[in-house]
Amino acid sequence: MTQATEAPPRSRRAPRRRKGRAVRVILLVLLVLVLLAGGGLWWLYSHLNGNIDSVDLDKAIGDNRPQKVVAGAQNVLVLGSDSRSGANGDLDHGDVGGTARSDTAMLMHIPEGHSRVTAVSIPRDTLVTRPECRKKDGETLPSKKRVMFNSIYTVAGPACVVNTVEQMSGVRIDHFVEVDFAGFKGLVDALGGVTVTTTERIHDTKGGFTLEPGTHKLDGTQSLKFVRTRYGHGDGSDLGRIGLQQQFMLAMLTEIKKQDAFGNPARLYQLADAGTKSLTTDSDLASLTALADFAKSMKGVDANTMETIMLPVAYDKVDPNRVVVAEPQATDLWSALREDKKVPASAKKSPAHGG
Question: How does pLDDT run across 223-233, given as a tens digit for each residue?
């Protein structure tokens, strides 16, 4: 008779099975969390990437472009557009017809080493020669003299603006960045406001904006009015408000540095989400990774190492409400940027200064 084998007590086997099940459950939960986290990160990346529109400059402009002189230097054309279409409809007093114009234009020259920046503002009322350009629909616009600089964006788009700046300066534009009203407002609000100091009263009756002398923290809507103030500051011309725009740019850069925004993941996402909304760039810069790499290369730049200049202009002899490029100052300015040299003091003197 075969002796029955005694089964081991259940108390010895059950905990081992339960332990095994518990480990499998934990591993399954961890796997799900990893997948969810990965999916979440991918969603965030796709969301931010999807905010960005782009233009292929080489395709749009063709071969008629200046050669790059200093390989390590970078030239970035920054445009602020005043369209009232879409999310911009309720903001300030822009083009109510929805047709965007380049309300602000700055050529940012970043020397080799990326430790400082020279920002050259181009007055929107400057009369320039528009080169032959191709519009988005493929139509070719013939070259035309004495056109207002800010009208070029309206009739031919940002690539033609880049082409115009390249032809008038001989400086190769590496990148362009365009932000409209909504994007600008969102970026300021994501920062929690920007602090500016003014020594004189600003009272813009057309824009409905008043600012007393002193230090003020402006939210997005107020900041937009500040940089667009024209009739309540200086001589009421576009030249007068360029100083306010440059002052605000330095103040915003100071705020970003003060908050260590790039070291705070939550704040960085807020800035990235706000900054990429309503953003258009050249195709080489049109991704989150490309923008992040470019931002990292600018870590050494702050308000103390940035120089702001207005393109030297003189009042037009035919139409005193317009300005023309002043020579030889402009030629000397462009030459310094093209060759990555210090801009001489004589190249910064503008006969027309906006009061």
Answer: 999 998 876 66
